[in-house]
Amino acid sequence: MEQKVTRLFNETCSLIGDKKYSAALSKCNEALSFEPDNEELLFLKTQIYAHLGEKSKAIEESEKLLGENPEMECAVQIILQFDNQMKTLAKNIIAKNESLRKKAISDLSKMNRPSAAFLLSQCIIHDEELYSEAADALYHMGPSTIPFLYQAFLKTVQAPCAVAYSTISYFGDAAIPYLHEILKKGGDEYHINELIKHIEEKNKK
Questions:
Q1: What is the dihedral of CA 22, 23, 28, 34, to 10 degrees?
Q2: pTM for the full model?
Q3: For 108-166, how does the pLDDT look when each residue is reduced to its tens digit (9 = 90+)?
Q4: Residues contacting 146, CB < 8 A, separation 6+
Q5: Residues 6+ apart with CB under 8 A from 43
Q6: Is residue 167 within 8 Å of residue 149, measured between CB atoms?
């Protein structure tokens, strides 16, 4: 099966190179029928939609891919290429003007989209002044943002450990696997275990 998928993947790439995008989409879908969770194929599909000028489908598929893998920055680039609103927010969230950055955080927090969660996670990583506001915004977007919070807190030295652990722990049971992962990566053992204990005790009530 793996060899067949590899062959189909290569044939898809060849068709893209020949600018035969409709045929490439058909071939890509055939490969996905064998491996529906293959990220390389799924990203290839977003690229084909982009070549076909089907912007909404390219954005939709990229959002799905990013939702499954919060580190899929290439999917974000497809979204920013076609979504002018998100492109503007991506610029504003790194602007020198703090009020612009705050407005971008507020606007992103109202969007139920993985790309919005991704941009907020980047704010946590890079913005020394507003990382806590970005973390709070992600929290209020709901449990689907936990992977983005988790990745951000692994990559930043700006957020104090207590802030990182506590923010993730607000999600209750859904947070426990991520707290265990942080523990494995050298997180504050006492603090994390106390949070897990708090979540478990809260569930018993």
A1: 130
A2: 0.80
A3: 999 989 999 999 999 888 887 888 888 889 888 888 888 888 788 777 644 445 556 66
A4: 168, 171, 174, 175, 178
A5: 65, 72, 74, 75
A6: yes
